[in-house]
Fold this protein.
Amino acid sequence: MHRHHRGHFVAFGLLPVLNAVALLIQGLNLSTHGMGNTGRSLVVILVAAGVSLLCAAVSAVKRGRDLGYPTLTASLAILVSLMLGPVFLVLLVYLAFAKAADPAAAPAGAPVASMGIHWLWAPVLLLAPWMALLVASDLP
């Protein structure tokens, strides 16, 4: 298993959270203005936002392990911060900018020089919910 360095965490942790926030704002807009297939669109928005937050939580646990925190501690911190709302954003910012004390001694091994094909998934994760929303809003 490779290390979950800062760049990987930004792509798969912070950006999905921002995407989830944008999706929820769009859902609020749809629910208050009620245009088109609002019911189906709201379901797609809630599922997509949930999946985005799940991706961010998994990424945060991996980044926490990279920083030397045990998996159980990182998981509990993510779970508690998700329940407290804005605290989750503070935790994500910390994880994005925290520097591992000794990268060579990290339990996941040495850092990976290049992410390669993994970076192709970041735009897919960001655009897929919006494409699903467009399809759901155009269905009869």
Q: What stands out?
A: Helices lie at 6-33, 38-66, 71-83, 86-97, 121-138. The longest helix spans residues 38-66.
